């Protein structure tokens, strides 16, 4: 069976890997290559965020957590397991996704102005490294990747898998899909090992091997991909208040990504006048977190076509 996968972000590549390693002939077509996608901008901490519905997101995220633990043991994958803390400004129950992580504990002493917090080990995915690793894994399994901007869903393959992210707005005619703009600042690594998150702003500090990603913003309906210098200054100030070691850290770059948001992730098989299409888009702020679970479901749907 020949499968055309649309999109070379984390969802297209991960689904492509699963399908190709299952023995299907997989060709990825994408307007933006992996390092140009929204996926390459992601921080990218395993954390279920801005994605619904909870039951499915929980299952996908849990499955992905387990897979990332294995991938982290693979050299050069760009995935590392790091412990860190989310600080909270109010007292809350354990998060709804707590059972997906092995070691969530409450923080006993939180700094002012916080009132509560939890710590856990999370996969941190260094996206530029990881996306290239996924591409190599796809190609080693016989898959291909070609740059191509499509005006609509193709109808000449045995199966199309639509992982076009925000591009599915056009390709699938889906007006419920909209951007939630996110801006980040990349600074030099100054010895920070743990990630830290203040979910209320949201502000996050995500250390990687050679740099640190500082965030963030969450602008509903924002389409502008240009970094805003004032927003960048605000991000650095908020992140430095959270992690004082960041004071004076050299800024290496600015990125903006448009999260593909939707009332709920669309992962389903559609029969388009005899042409099967598996849609897999609308992962909001959790596309990395859910990627392996979604790819497994795409494979199961594909094998049933
Ligand atoms: C600042 C920021 C921080 C984030 N942090 C995290 C995080 O910590 N953890 C996490 O899990 N998630 C995070 N996310 C969310 C995550 O980045 C997204 O959910 C994820 O990247 C979506 O991946 P995707 O593969 O579905 O789409 P994309 O990465 O957007 O890829 C879509 C692909 O489809 C292609 N395409 C679109 N239209 C067409 C067309 N007409 N023809 C051909 N190709 C087309 C594109 O060119 C691209 O290759 C963050 C996002 C941002 C912006």
Query: In percent, how much strand structure appears in the residues?
Result: 25-35%
Structural class: alpha/beta
From the 3D structure, determine the CATH topology: Rossmann fold
CATH superfamily: NAD(P)-binding Rossmann-like Domain
Can you characterise this structure?
Strands 3, 4, 5, 8, 9, 10, 11, 12 and 13 form a nine-stranded mixed sheet that branches. A six-stranded mixed sheet has the order 6-2-1-7-15-14, with helices on one face. The longest helix has 19 residues. The radius of gyration is 19 Å and the shape is globular. Helix 1 packs parallel to helix 3. It has a single domain, classed as NAD(P)-binding Rossmann-like Domain (Rossmann fold, 3-Layer(aba) Sandwich), CATH 3.40.50. It is of the alpha/beta class. Flavin-adenine dinucleotide binds next to helix 1, strand 2, helix 4, strand 8 and strand 13.
Compact overview of the structure:
The chain has 305 residues and is an alpha/beta fold.
Question: Strands, helices and their partners?
Answer:
Blueprint lengths: L1 E5 L3 H12 L3 E6 L23 H19 L6 E10 L16 E2 L9 E10 L1 H14 L3 E4 L11 E4 L5 H4 L6 E11 L6 E4 L4 E5 L3 E5 L3 E2 L8 H14 L8 E11 L4 E7 L2 E7 L9 H13 L2
Parallel strand pairs: 1-2, 1-7, 2-6, 3-9, 7-15
Antiparallel strand pairs: 3-5, 4-5, 8-11, 8-12, 8-13, 9-10, 10-11, 14-15
Keywords:
6 helices, 305 residues, binds flavin-adenine dinucleotide, single chain, 6-stranded mixed β-sheet, 9-stranded mixed β-sheet, alpha/beta
């Amino acid at each position: 069976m020949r499968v055309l996968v649309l999109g070379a972000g984390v969802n297209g590549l991960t689904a492509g890997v699963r399908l190709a390693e299952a023995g299907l002939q997989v060709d990825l077509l994408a307007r933006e290559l992996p390092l140009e996608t929204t996926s390459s901008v992601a921080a990218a901490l395993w954390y279920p965020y801005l994605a619904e519905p909870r039951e499915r997101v929980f299952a996908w995220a849990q499955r992905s957590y387990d897979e990332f633990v294995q991938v982290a043991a693979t050299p050069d994958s760009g995935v590392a397991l790091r412990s860190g803390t989310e600080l909270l400004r109010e007292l809350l129950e354990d998060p709804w996704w707590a059972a997906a992580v092995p070691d969530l504990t409450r923080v006993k002493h939180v700094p002012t102005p916080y009132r509560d917090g939890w710590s856990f080990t999370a996969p941190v995915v260094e996206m530029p490294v990881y996306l290239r690793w996924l591409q190599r894994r796809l190609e080693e399994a016989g898959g291909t990747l070609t740059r191509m901007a499509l005006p609509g869903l193709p109808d000449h393959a045995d199966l199309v898998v639509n992982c076009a992210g925000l591009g599915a707005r056009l390709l699938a005619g889906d007006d419920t899909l909209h951007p939630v703009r996110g801006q980040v600042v990349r600074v030099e690594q100054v010895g920070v090992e743990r990630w830290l998150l203040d979910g209320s702003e949201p502000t996050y500090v995500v250390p990687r091997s050679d740099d640190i990603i500082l965030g963030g913003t969450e602008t509903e309906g924002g389409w502008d991909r240009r970094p805003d210098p004032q927003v960048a200054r605000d991000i650095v100030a908020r992140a430095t208040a959270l992690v004082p070691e960041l004071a004076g850290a050299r800024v290496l770059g600015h990125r903006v990504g448009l999260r593909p948001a939707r009332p709920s992730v669309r992962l389903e098989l559609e029969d388009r006048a005899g042409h099967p299409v598996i849609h897999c888009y609308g992962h909001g702020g959790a596309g990395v977190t859910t990627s392996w679970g979604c790819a497994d479901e795409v494979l199961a749907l594909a094998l049933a076509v």
